[in-house]
Amino acid sequence: MKINKLQVGDFLFFHTEPKNTFDRIIPFGIQELTNSLWNHVETIYEVQDNDVLSAGALSEGYKIRSIREAISKEDVRISVRRYHGDGVGGKELTDEDKFKIHHQINLIQNAPYGFSQIAFLAVLSQINNVTLPSYILRQAMEELQKMLDCGQTQMICSEAAYRVVARAGLPIRILNDDAVQDYYNATGSIMDLYRATKKEDQLNPLIENWITPKDLSLSPDLITMGDLEVGWR
């Protein structure tokens, strides 16, 4: 997919392979802990005549920057996903929706990165999103994180990407582990399978605090547009 085809609200999923061993710790750790290709997510903030701006959670905080700055040679694959309410053939973003996403991105600018959440992923990645023990554990870990972070609202990239769309009033369904397993074993209609999955399971009230790039990439409300073509690297 060409960069000039991007739209406000599009998600960019990054697969990064840094050459420096130290720089590999976070991206490789996220890939391994979540059993996924993806280690970083950005949201398209603005499409200009000569540039595209994206927003993402970085070590220095949640920032808006040129896509040329966001993408490096170490980002070996970038998948573009576009929001469609209710999945394939569903409602696309309106200009009003895009304005709301733009506003939500502005609200969380400079929010600090949730380094402690990366450590917690080691535990959460092994637990079903919707079981009672998982729900209780997420609550306990949320309180622990607040104490460790001294009450600051910290977030990782996928959590931020989820928040700006969900808080713009656009529901993004997140499949629980059982639904994901059913999806991969499905022999019938995928859409029927999605609709059969319990809605309250998909929209766990604490999910945004711990959502991973993998969780977001598997949402039935995000349609794969293809890999981004990057000509300047």
Can you tag this structure with a few keywords?
alpha+beta; 38% helix; 7 strands; 7-stranded antiparallel beta sheet; 10 helices
Structure characterization notes:
By secondary structure, the chain is of the alpha+beta class. The protein has one domain (3-227): endopeptidase domain like (from Nostoc punctiforme) (endopeptidase fold (from Nostoc punctiforme), Alpha-Beta Complex). It has ten helices and seven strands. A hairpin with a 4-residue loop joins β2 (40-47) and β3. The longest helix has 17 residues, at 132-148. It is globular and about 40 Å long. Mean pLDDT is 79; it is low at 128-133 and 197-206.
Mean residue pLDDT: 79
Number of domain units: 1
How is the main sheet built? 7 strands, antiparallel
Q: What is the chain-wise order of helices and strands?
A: EHEEEHEEHHHHHHHHE
What CATH calls the topology is: endopeptidase fold (from Nostoc punctiforme)
Brief account:
The chain is of the alpha+beta class. Helices cover 38% and strands 20% of the residues. It has helices at 25-34, 67-70, 95-107, 115-124, 132-148, 157-166, 177-184, 190-196, 199-202, 213-217, and strands at 11-16, 40-47, 52-58, 61-66, 75-85, 91-92, 222-227.
Helix and strand arrangement:
Layout: E1 11-16, H1 25-34, E2 40-47, E3 52-58, E4 61-66, H2 67-70, E5 75-85, E6 91-92, H3 95-107, H4 115-124, H5 132-148, H6 157-166, H7 177-184, H8 190-196, H9 199-202, H10 213-217, E7 222-227
Antiparallel strand pairs: 1-2, 1-5, 2-3, 3-4, 5-6, 5-7
